[in-house]
Design a protein that fits this description.
mainly alpha, single chain, about 0% strand
Length: about 140
């Protein structure tokens, strides 16, 4: 991972958003210079999300449009395309911004804590008979 991107994440955690935006732009420029357009578009998607959450929606829309254009051109980064498309739609319609919590494009399902991780064997009549025969 890019050092500038790591610094940007730390600035986001410290709520120093102007520094985070500056370091994200540096990370994007560095990846583009190195020929890693895919990684640069992932960083650009993060930058767009940050800008959108800071109510800088026109700048965010430009970043997301660049991500969607790249995804259409390269047929790659499906998660970023979904995220960028959802944000563009929300910005254009003036609705609430989408929230992504990770997983497959934010569609992570929460596990029901009452369901065991390892399923118990089905205890039907044949199972009980086999278990009883083992004791003899």
């Amino acid at each position: 991972m890019n050092v500038e991107f790591e610094a940007a994440l730390q600035y986001i955690n410290m709520e120093s958003y102007d520094n985070a935006i500056e370091h994200l732009n540096k990370a994007i420029d560095k990846e583009m210079e190195d020929g890693n357009e895919g990684t640069a578009m992932e960083y650009r998607c993060v930058l767009g999300e940050l800008l959108a959450n800071l109510d800088r929606k026109e700048e965010a829309r430009d970043e997301f449009a660049a991500v969607v254009d790249y995804c259409d051109f390269s047929n790659g980064l499906p998660n970023q395309k979904i995220i960028a498309g959802a944000f563009i739609k929300a910005i254009d319609e003036g609705g609430p911004l989408p929230r992504f919590d990770g997983g497959a494009a934010g569609a992570s399902a929460k596990r029901d804590p009452s369901v065991p991780l390892i399923p118990k064997p089905v205890q039907n009549k044949s199972f009980i008979t086999r278990q009883m025969n083992k004791r003899k």
